[in-house]
Design goal:
binds 2-({[4-(methylsulfanyl)phenyl]methyl}amino)ethan-1-ol; six-stranded mixed β-barrel; 8 helices; alpha+beta; 421 residues
């Protein structure tokens, strides 16, 4: 059977007025004694796409005929087109804003679009969980207070994932549950077709009260997803195969809009080098260790502190011994049962808090730890650093993460990187 390549070459050679001077085939199938059979194999080292004009050019060279100019130009034309095509494939990326939902950065939301035509919602990208759920047309109106909702029946690309349900409870006691659709979903220009979108049939009161938050995008590992009978993949796990780099980055800011990037690391967003450290992905959080800490100008205390980097948790929760060492430096600070944590006079001068990632050091400004007044007229303030003793896990929440540029790397094995900014 004459192959496409043969036909293509013949036609090119014919066009060049060279007839079918195709090179003789190598590798005859003849098994008679005294004859040699050579099996052709693909060159495993050739990563470059096949450029037919280059093959023709070589044929000219092989038969000692100077290749016409247009053949040389054709080689370049095809190389350019292949280069551009490659640049488009596996080059997905996205970049979107991370907007604080109130004046003390209790959470950050990011605009996303769902469905056809696109419905825009503001969702909390949460590395501490792995469900993508939204306020929806199925959420009782008594539980919706100003949130944008996703209405699957208005999307021509929505599909019910029949028989599937979900239910989630977060560390702060909030929660939600519901049904599941798949639909087109984009963040910052990065699209995932048929992303599982979990539609809320019920949300807890703390979600109802957060009127600027329309749901969550879980960016933990998909093993934590609560959809049953079959669990669903996160947006990042769905997008990963098409991303230029298997990463997403968080650049959260203090009382300002930051950003999340997918598929690339923007060198304009950080200074110095990124220091990476190992991630344990079981049971599904971005679990890693700090290499130690220091309070204010005090000496660095080296100690492996295991915890989770969680963009969906507001504060920094560390072992009681570290937290008491910090507040011992704050005149009038106390661990208040009444207020449920460490409080201090708002007029206090707080020390900075520094944490280590391997050999690197990241300092949280005192202002981040002077988190908020107990009430608008109170002179008592609540700390951004609190004890993790009641949680059973240390949580490096937004108070810590906004002091760095953070790279969540979905490579195998996964790792997490921190850089100053
Ligand atoms: C009520 S506002 C709210 C935002 C995010 C979450 C989930 N974050 C915790 C674990 O990452 C819970 C409540």
């Amino acid at each position: 059977m004459v192959s496409f390549t043969d036909l293509f070459l013949t036609s090119l050679l014919a066009a060049a007025g060279l007839g079918s001077a195709l090179p003789p085939r190598i590798g005859t199938a003849d098994q008679r004694a005294g004859r040699l059979t050579l099996k052709q194999v693909r060159n495993p080292r050739s990563h470059r796409a096949f450029n037919p004009a280059r093959a023709t050019y070589r044929t000219f060279l092989k038969y000692g005929v100077p290749a016409p100019d247009y053949i040389k130009k054709a080689v370049a034309h095809i190389d350019d087109e292949q280069e551009k095509a490659l640049a488009k494939m596996k080059r997905d990326k996205g970049s979107a804003a991370a907007i604080p939902i109130n004046e003390v950065d209790i959470a950050y939301v990011t605009p996303v679009t769902i469905g056809t035509p696109p419905q825009t919602l503001m969702l909390d990208l949460d590395t501490g969980s792995s469900d993508l759920w939204v306020f929806s047309s199925l959420t009782p109106s008594t539980q919706v207070r100003g949130q944008e909702i996703y209405t699957p029946t208005k999307s021509s690309t929505s599909k019910l994932l029949s028989g599937h349900t979900w239910s989630i409870r977060y560390g702060d006691g909030s929660g939600s549950r519901g049904s599941v659709y798949t639909d087109n979903f984009t963040i910052g220009g990065l699209e995932v077709r048929s992303q599982a979108v979990q539609t809320a049939l019920e949300v807890s009161s703390s979600f109802t009260q957060e009127q600027s938050l329309d749901g969550l995008v879980g960016l933990g590992f998909s093993t934590l997803n609560t959809v049953r009978p079959s669990s669903q993949l996160t947006f990042f796990d769905n997008a990963r195969p098409n991303l230029d780099e298997e990463v997403f980055t968080a650049d959260l800011k203090y009382h300002a809009t930051g950003s999340y990037d997918f598929g690339f690391i923007d060198s304009k967003k950080y200074t110095g080098n990124i220091t990476y450290t190992a991630v344990q992905q079981s049971p599904g959080y971005w679990t890693h260790s700090l290499s130690g800490y220091s309070v204010g100008s005090g000496a660095f205390q080296a100690s492996q502190i295991s915890g989770i980097s969680d963009t969906g948790t507001t504060l920094l929760y560390l072992p009681t011994a570290i937290v008491t060492a910090y507040y011992r430096q704050v005149q009038g600070a106390q661990n208040s049962q009444y207020y449920g944590g460490y409080v201090f006079p708002c007029s206090s001068t707080l020390p900075t808090f520094t944490f280590g990632i391997e050999g690197a050091r990241f300092t949280i400004p005192a202002s981040y730890i002077n988190y908020t007044r107990i009430s608008p007229t109170s002179t008592t303030c609540y700390g951004g650093l609190q004890s993790s003793s009641g949680l059973g896990i240390n949580i490096f929440g937004d108070v810590a993460l906004k002091a760095a540029f953070v790279v969540f790397s979905g490579t195998n094995p996964p790792r997490i990187g921190f850089a100053t900014k």
